[in-house]
Amino acid sequence: MVAMNTPAKLPLLMVDAIGGAVLGAIVVGCAYLVFFHADHATVEINELTSLINSASEDLSMVRTARDRQRAILKEQHGELESSRQLPADIPIEEYLQALSGLAAQNRLRVVRQNPLPSREYPGLLEQRYAYEVSGSVPDMARFFKAVEDADFWADIAYLKVDGAQAETNNRDRLALLTISLFSAVKQEPAAEGG
């Protein structure tokens, strides 16, 4: 009976030996990874952590710069919209004084200024003035250019230079202009219906 049991035990011993060898290989592999490869893995993890921190700092700086640029852009848009926007009310006295100042700077004499009928367009009000000046033609040309380059919303809508000489000087001429002063049309509040 003993002889019959021996061959059956042999395969179990072989299975145990193979299992022990596999288990030993796993233990040796784990020990290698833990003790020898762990230093290399730690270095790689530290390098990756450093790269992630550096990228996070760069991203933070980019976001800060973006926010700063957005604020500057918003401020510039606001300045642009307000700087070239038609005024709601025309400071007529200031405009007429500025025109008289430009005429004097260009050695012209203001002969007269009279209001003309206003014109209204969609979103635009044009208040017109007849403006007559006397002086030399080159001085008039400089005055016309100064009016066109002025910061206020005024334009020369009509111009007639009289060939007759002014009474004060043989070289002086009379110029009749129509000066248009522009403003935005005031919006009437909508009537509330019931």
What would your notes on this structure say?
With 194 residues, the protein is an alpha+beta fold. It is 56% helix and 24% strand. Helix 2 (92-105) runs antiparallel to helix 3 (137-149). Strands 1, 2, 3, 4 and 5 form a five-stranded antiparallel beta sheet that branches. The longest helix is centred in the N-terminal third of the chain and has 82 residues, at 2-83. The N and C termini lie far apart (115 Å). The chain is rod-shaped, with a radius of gyration of 46 Å.
| Radius of gyration based on Cα positions | 46 Å
Into which percentage range does the β-strand content fall?
15-25%
Helix and strand succession? HHEEEHEE
Q: What's the total number of strands?
A: 5
Biggest beta sheet attributes? 5 strands, antiparallel
Low-pLDDT residue intervals, each spanning 5 or more residues: none
Summarize this entry quickly.
The chain has three helices and five strands, in the order ααβββαββ.
Features of the shown structure:
single chain, 194 residues, alpha+beta, Alpha-Beta Plaits, 2 domains, 5-stranded antiparallel beta sheet, 24% strand, rod-shaped
Question: Helices and strands in order, then pairings?
Answer:
Elements: H1 2-83, H2 92-105, E1 109-115, E2 119-121, E3 124-135, H3 137-149, E4 154-165, E5 173-184
Antiparallel strand pairs: 1-3, 2-3, 3-5, 4-5
Helix pairs in contact: 2-3
